[in-house]
Design a protein that fits this description.
The chain contains ten helices and no strands. By secondary structure, the chain is mainly alpha-helical. The longest helix is centred in the N-terminal third of the chain and has 28 residues.
C-alpha cells in the first residue's frame, strides 16, 4: 500500500478514535455565548490551530520525526496538557489509534510505543501514536503534519456543525478558511524550539478547565 492511501485511512473522519466526542473547549465558549455562529467559531478554530495544535501536537510530531525519544515526548505532553479532560481525551484517542495501527500498520517502532504504554511507562498520546505510524510508513514530515492538523480541524468543525449548530455548507466554508491556518502552522512548526513546547493561550486552557464543571454539555472535553 502506498503511504498516500495509508495516510488517508489514518486521517479519515470515519476512523473510530472517538474524536466526535470532544470539543477541546469550544463548547465552553458556546455556553458563554462567545461562539455562536460561523464567524465566531472560525475565530476560535484559527486560534486553536495556531496555538494548541502548533505548539503541542505539531511540535511533538516534528520532534519524534527528528529522533527525540518517544518516552521523553510522551512525558512532555503529559506535563504540558494542564486541563484534565484534554489530557484524557488525547490519551483515549491515542490508545485507540495504537490499537488500530497495531492491527493494520504494524511496525517495530509502533510495537515499542505500545509496549511502553502497556507497561505503564508511557500514556499513549494521539499525536505520538500518529507520528510513529506515519514515520514507519515513510510519510514525509510536512505531509504528516498537514494531514494530522487538517484531520483535527475537520473533526472539530463537524462537531461544531452539530453543537452550535451550523449548516453543512458553513462547515465547508470553515474548512476552506482553516486550510490557510493549517498551511501557516505547517510552515511555523519547523522553526519552533523545545522551549516553545506547550506555549498555549491561557484563555484556551481556562475554557477547557471550565468545561469539567459546565452544567450541560454534549462533549466529553
Amino acid at each position: 500500500m502506498s503511504y498516500q492511501l495509508a495516510l488517508q485511512q489514518l486521517t479519515d473522519s470515519a476512523l473510530p478514535t472517538g474524536a466526535f466526542a470532544h470539543s477541546f473547549g469550544f463548547e465552553t465558549y458556546i455556553e458563554r455565548e462567545l461562539v455562536f455562529d460561523e464567524g465566531s467559531f472560525g475565530v476560535w478554530l484559527s486560534a486553536f490551530v495556531s496555538q494548541s495544535l502548533s505548539f503541542s501536537d505539531g511540535l511533538a510530531i516534528r520532534f519524534l520525526y527528528e529522533g527525540v525519544d518517544v518516552l521523553e515526548l510522551d512525558a512532555l505532553l503529559s506535563a504540558s496538557l494542564l486541563p484534565r479532560q484534554v489530557r484524557e481525551a488525547i490519551v483515549k484517542m491515542g490508545l485507540r489509534l495504537l490499537e488500530i495501527g497495531g492491527e493494520i500498520f504494524p511496525s517495530p517502532a509502533l510495537g515499542l510505543y505500545r509496549d511502553l504504554v502497556a507497561s505503564g511507562r508511557a500514556a499513549g498520546h494521539q499525536p505520538l501514536a500518529f507520528a510513529v505510524v506515519a514515520r514507519s510508513l515513510g510519510v514525509p514530515l510536512q505531509e504528516a503534519l498537514t494531514a494530522y492538523l487538517f484531520a483535527a480541524v475537520t473533526s472539530l468543525t463537524q462537531n461544531a456543525v452539530r453543537a452550535i449548530p451550523l449548516g453543512q455548507n458553513a462547515g465547508q466554508r470553515l474548512l476552506r478558511q482553516a486550510a490557510d491556518d493549517v498551511a501557516a502552522a505547517v510552515e511555523r512548526v519547523p522553526h519552533l524550539m523545545l522551549d516553545d513546547f506547550g506555549a498555549v493561550t491561557p484563555a484556551l486552557e481556562i475554557s477547557q478547565m471550565r468545561h469539567e464543571r459546565q452544567r450541560a454539555r454534549m462533549f466529553m472535553s
